[in-house]
Amino acid sequence: MHKAILPLIIAFASFSSQSADFEFSTGGGTQYGGFIGIQGGLKFEKSRYFAALGLFGVSAGAQFQMSNDGHHSLGVNGGTMYGIFGGDKDYIAMTYNYHFKGFHNSGWEIGTGVGYFKTEEHSIWFSSDVAEEEEKAHIIFNIGYKF
Hints:
Elements (H helix, E strand, L loop, with lengths): L1 H12 L7 E9 L4 E10 L3 E8 L2 E9 L6 E10 L5 E13 L7 E16 L7 E17 L1
Antiparallel strand pairs: 1-2, 1-8, 2-3, 3-4, 4-5, 5-6, 6-7, 7-8
C-alpha cells in the first residue's frame, strides 16, 4: 500500500513547492491601510501579495516586478478607510512603486497611482443611515519602509 502512495505524494509535492518569503513593512498611504499602518506580505520571485492594517483602515493587494533590476513594480490594492466622524471610504487602485534598493531587498519604497473611491457620509455618529454618497477618482501616494 505504501509503495503505491509514495510515487503519488512525490509527484504532487513538486506542484506546491514554490519558495515564498514573508515580509513586514510600515508606511503611509492606501497600501498601508490609510494614514499610517503596517503591512505583512508574501513575496515570490516576481510578485508580492499583502494585507495591511492601518490607523482607521484595512487594505489588501498585490505588486508585480516590472524591471530586471527590480526597482519598478505595478500593482493593485483595495480596502476601506473608516472615518472618525462617520465618513467611510471604500477604494480600489492601480499603483506604481519604486523600490530604492530593489524589489527583494529591505529599504524605502515610494509609489503613486490612481484610485476609485466611494465615500459614504453617515448622518449621525455610528449610524448606518447614509446621508450622502460620493464616487470619485483620486491620485494616491504611498511611502513605506520594508524590513
